[in-house]
Design goal:
Elements: E1 8-11, H1 15-26, E2 31-35, H2 43-46, H3 60-75, E3 80-86, E4 102-104, E5 117-123, H4 127-140, E6 144-147, E7 159-162, H5 168-171, E8 177-188, E9 197-200, E10 208-212, E11 217-220, E12 224-225, H6 234-247, E13 255-267, E14 272-277, E15 283-288, H7 294-312
Parallel strand pairs: 1-2, 1-7, 2-6, 3-9, 7-15
Antiparallel strand pairs: 3-5, 4-5, 8-11, 8-12, 8-13, 9-10, 10-11, 14-15
Length: 313
């Protein structure tokens, strides 16, 4: 690294920003993460933590980024689960999985009312703990953290990485970016109920999914355009649990320990990942608009950001 290489300012402390911080610090760049929210208060902490390219585009870039994320999680020993996706719709993202990670579900593995499904071997992360781990890894690599709101990307220095998520709509005046509200319930499962990772995203109980993490079981969910996340809706929670009980019998007896709400940063056309020269002579690298696939795409995008930074040298 040249001695005069500028500090890189990353705006945003969710999984996208933290992944970029780690990737750039591993390349021995000086990095500062600036955000008005702690990692635990970002939408990344609300996410279920399943590797699944949900709410994003179906481009070759998305598949490559998803594959890179899968390989990173597997290399670091993240838990892998057998994810039962109900129905027989084509899995457009299956090529992003390593070979042998998808099979047809057997009849006895399907809940009542379903005649088909696929079982995919994918990572399932405890998103709050993983954010804490990423932040700690970044700090150990020398990344600095600053808590404040950024109102002008150009004012942050000569090289800025924009990982502001939904906040990029205001920072960049990007009207292609919209919030999509998701609500989930965190459950303490009844004793004796075997863990099941299952989802119906297109069938009769859509949208329903159960993610049996080690900390809590996540039951979801919703997907609705919204300007604000708002407070959890108890009627929505009851509807979620009713749908989830149909795909995971016995779940109706689970104890609810928390309700969480967040806004997915969905962007028409998919992730914006590009370098932009600013009128002040500086450069902003944009990395936002991951929809519901932040955990799935973050590392692959971070590697691309690192390559873009290297190309500026």
């Amino acid at each position: 690294m040249p001695a005069a290489a500028p500090e890189i300012v990353i705006v945003g402390a969710g999984v996208t920003g933290l992944s970029c911080a780690v990737a750039l610090a591993e390349a021995e760049r000086r990095v500062r993460v600036v955000s008005d929210r702690a990692p635990a208060d970002t939408v990344s902490a609300v996410a279920g933590g399943l590797w699944f390219p949900y709410g994003t585009d179906r481009s070759p870039d998305t598949l490559a980024r998803a594959r890179a994320g899968y390989e990173r999680f597997e290399a670091q020993g993240a838990p892998l689960v057998d994810y039962l996706l109900l129905g027989d719709a084509p899995l457009w993202w299956a090529s992003a999985l390593p070979p042998g990670r998808v099979r047809a579900a057997r009849a006895e593995e399907l809940p009542a009312g379903y005649s088909a499904g696929r079982i995919c071997r994918v990572p399932l992360l405890e998103s709050p703990a993983e954010l804490e781990r990423l932040a700690g890894q970044a700090a150990a690599l020398g990344v600095a953290f600053e808590r404040r709101r950024v109102r002008d990307l150009a004012g942050e220095g000569p090289l800025v990485v924009n990982c502001a998520g939904l906040g990029a709509r205001e920072l960049c005046k990007d009207q292609a970016l919209a919030g999509v509200r998701g609500q989930v319930a965190h459950l303490r499962p009844p004793a004796g109920l075997a863990p099941v990772c299952v989802a119906d995203d297109l069938g009769p109980n859509a949208l329903a999914y159960v993610l049996p993490r080690a900390d809590v079981w996540v039951a979801g969910g919703t997907s609705e355009p919204a300007e604000e996340a708002g407070e959890p809706d108890l009627q929505v929670r009851e509807a979620i649990l009713e749908r989830c009980g149909r795909i995971a019998p016995g779940l109706e007896d689970a104890e609810v320990v928390d309700d969480r709400v967040g806004l997915r940063p969905v962007r028409a056309g998919g992730v914006r990942l590009e370098a932009e020269r600013r009128p002040d002579g500086g450069t902003t690298i944009h990395d936002y608009g991951h929809g519901g696939a932040g955990w799935t795409l973050a590392w692959g995008c971070a590697l691309e950001v690192r390559a873009l930074v290297a190309g500026l040298a």
